[in-house]
Write a structure and sequence with these properties.
44% of the residues lie in helices and 18% in strands. It is of the alpha+beta class.
């Protein structure tokens, strides 16, 4: 069911979604901002991630150390991050301290220092993470998949950026990006917990002021999904394979994902791991974004069986198009999806995240109810028709394998 909440529009245009509840003594406030690779040029790849890393690292009134000490004294914490197209800054506090902690949260949003020393520290840490990612071979396989799938579209970039682009980012560029994204304050704030909504609205109004939000930049045109295979040779004792297709049909794609690799009873697990012992790890995943969603599967296997594993992934995707799944599989997928959807909104932070995302993406707060209800209309024949349309064509593949590993052509 949709999360009950109050909706307030502040004078400057920021939308506040307030969900007071008494299930626990935690208060979570999260601010949401469109940002990430979708809104970055390749030359500044990673700037959104750096903005979010530096934002909680001190204000014009307090150093990073002083800010962290003040939060610790209140038993509160701040976090920030970004995905492909949406970033968030969050405060978590208790009912006894949330009002005082809100001062620090708002100070971080409207008076960030972007201290040059903190910027340099975060740039070095980001470069270290980028270097470490070279040893995370499934991450490298996913990076290669996204590059092949999205081509020149902005979604092709990893949120953390590339080493050359991050190394070139200096304080002025990060400050300019923050101003561009925040417009000048977040357009959406969601709060869940034991608090007074009117008090929170008044605090936000005083901090954000009446100046209207700057209209957002237009989003790039939707991507044209790519085709083909990218191979990366790396000396390792395992092969990492990713296989995927475009699929914009949300409820049916979610059911197909659950059937393919959503659980230990899924087709990929049973057919490729249990029956054929092809996989150290195997799963599928549905990547739903503003545009350019995809359904993909990954497998970690022995290099000597990489070709067999790649063919197995292809076979299971095609099998969805060639024969309808049993009604029992559809029922199991529905139960799995409904259960995980409910469990995923168990905490205050998760509920604030759901409220903020639905508002930011303009899908309506009843989106969860709509797609859950739509599951009842996903029949075996509907899954087969979906698979024939979206999964029957040439896939995008990314293979990170040892030199000499034999793989299917194409």
């Amino acid at each position: 069911m949709a999360l009950a909440h109050e909706r307030h529009v502040l004078p400057g245009g920021t939308v506040l979604l307030a969900r007071p509840q008494t299930a626990n003594d935690i208060v979570v406030v999260r601010a949401f901002v469109p940002m990430g690779p979708l809104y970055e040029d390749d030359a500044e790849a990673g700037v959104s991630s750096l903005v979010q890393e530096v934002l909680p690292r001190g204000t014009t009134q307090r150093s990073a150390h002083e800010l962290q000490e003040a939060l610790a004294d209140l038993g509160a914490d701040l976090d920030a991050g970004t995905g492909s197209d949406l970033g968030a800054v969050g405060l978590r506090a208790t009912v006894a301290t949330w009002d005082a902690a809100l001062d620090l949260f708002l100070e971080s949003l409207v008076e960030p220092a972007f201290d040059a020393r903190e910027v340099a520290i975060e740039v070095e840490q980001a470069l270290g993470e980028i270097d470490a990612r070279q040893d995370q071979l499934m991450a490298r396989a996913m990076d290669a998949f996204r590059e092949r799938f999205y081509g020149s579209h902005p979604y092709h970039k990893p949120a953390i950026g590339y080493r050359p682009s991050v190394a070139a980012l200096e304080r002025d560029a990060i400050v300019a990006a923050a101003r561009r994204f925040y417009r000048p304050v977040p357009p959406v704030v969601a709060a869940v917990g034991r608090f007074d909504p009117e008090r929170l609205a008044a605090r936000l109004e005083a901090a954000f002021g009446p100046t209207p939000l700057v209209p957002p930049e237009p989003r790039p045109a939707p991507p044209e999904p790519g085709r083909g295979t990218t191979r990366v040779d790396v000396e390792r004792e395992a092969a990492y394979l990713v296989h995927g297709h475009p699929d914009p049909d949300y409820p049916t794609a979610r059911v197909a994902d659950a059937i393919l690799g959503g659980s230990m009873a899924s087709r990929l697990f049973v057919e490729l791991r249990e029956k054929r012992s092809l996989a150290y790890q195997v799963s599928s995943f549905y990547n739903d974004q503003l545009e350019g969603s995809f359904l993909a599967a990954s497998i970690v296997t022995d290099p000597g069986r990489a070709g067999e594993a790649a063919a197995g992934l292809d076979r299971e995707f095609r099998r969805l198009a060639e024969e309808p799944p049993a009604e029992a599989e559809i029922d199991a997928a529905r139960r799995y999806l409904r259960g995980t959807f409910l469990i995923a909104a168990e905490t205050n932070a998760a509920q604030a995240g759901r409220l903020g995302r639905y508002e930011s993406y303009s899908v309506g707060q009843d989106f969860g109810d709509r797609w859950q209800a739509a599951l009842d209309g996903v029949t075996p024949d509907a899954v087969r028709a979906f698979a024939r349309r979206w999964l029957g064509g040439p896939p995008v593949r990314a293979h990170v394998v040892p030199p000499g590993a034999e793989l299917p052509e194409g």
